[in-house]
Design goal:
Length: about 500
Amino acid sequence: MTIDGADELARAGYAWEIADAPLLHEPLTLADLAHVLELVRIKAIPPASARALAGELLAMLAAPPESVDYSPAFGEMYSSREHHLANRIGDDAGWLHSGRTRREAMRIAYRILVRRHVVDLVGGAAGLAEALCDQAAEDLDSVMPDYTYLQPAEPTTFGHYLASFVDPVLRDGGRLEREFADVNASPMGSGAASGSALLRERTVAGNDLGFDGAIDHVRDAMWQSDPFTHVLLAATTLVLGQDKLAEDLEVFASREFDFVQLGDGLVRPSVLMPQKRNPYALTVIRGMSGILIGRATGQLAVSKSPSARSDLYIYAYGEVPRALDLATRTTELSTAVVRTLRVSASRMSAALVGRHTGAAETAAYLVREFGVDYRTAHSIVSQAVRAAGADAREVTAADIATAARTAGIAPVVVTDDRLRALADPRGVVASHDGLGGSAAESMTAFIAERRMRAEELATWAQGTRRRLDDGEASVVRRARELVGEYDDKEIS
């Protein structure tokens, strides 16, 4: 018998959820195995049924997602799996419903999947921060103009410029590390949404899977969305920082600037114009930032709903993990860009010639030596720069004296040698030796401290990944023991 609307719901709704089956197949099977083991522990399932169910789940875990007929014809993902299990082991499949809703199973699988991506992204952020530190340290002596609005501003070094991207990466890596605690909280044993009649000790099964603890309120456990929104927003801002660097490097890699070149594997030649060397990797990074903005906006939109609504999740199960995966791959690509950069220090230095990037130093000198206010000093130097610019030369003592007289200031006596020293890019860079300044000593200390933080993030990611892997492997091992692969061991 055909049910009115069933085909339409399958095509529009269930098919959407089924599309996420390849992502959630393994995590959902782990969640099911942990549930079976918990039912065994509390003696809520017959031993023969437990062995049959665990054995079939282990077979599913070892097989690719295609081995299960995930089909909208059977409903969403959970129902497709139930259909598969029932065909394989009959009524023993029904024990999987004991004390647990389908949404609880899906929420557990979702958290297992998302937490893996969060750990990977933290590791990726650590790698990018380390690459930025390494490249910045190599170029602390490569003087160049800093640019605002693409106009030459003050002298800096390419190392100081690159180091400005380290802290944003570390901040987002730190945010992801902190948010992990909320992602890696267990909803197991929540029941319908007020608790389970069978699973009273909610922390036990969760600990088996590597969760850090149970979510205190079971209704919140079923419907919370904020941890996933937060990690997605942190991933988006992490890539937005990379977008800023990529957009700058696209300018710096142009023939007009020729400050840097990307590694050969990160560029793509034109099929028509032999001379072109397109920095294609930068295009990918910039495009991915837009994609992530869209994904984050979409998740915020579906989160705007009453409580206890599944649309919070059915449109997040695949979207959030895919977005986090995109962020990780983009971060790894940005790391490759930074590590393979070839820097032309001579081109950077040449870009300072005739750009008057020491003008602010000259104005500050007039304030210190002649007691004029900065606005007046700014006006004097600005007029002198315009006069020199008309002849394409450096500012001279005569330019300053003329501008000072025009401003009604008593004679300002400054030598050409002093002006040349004030305008010397390397001198300007070395004089900016305060916290975070461009001087090599300041930057060396900055980079050393940031390397330590990046190493801490990397260590956290590696250790957390091992802990999660160990927890999941323990569930699989115990399930194998249950079905008799290791007859000499008992279920712990």
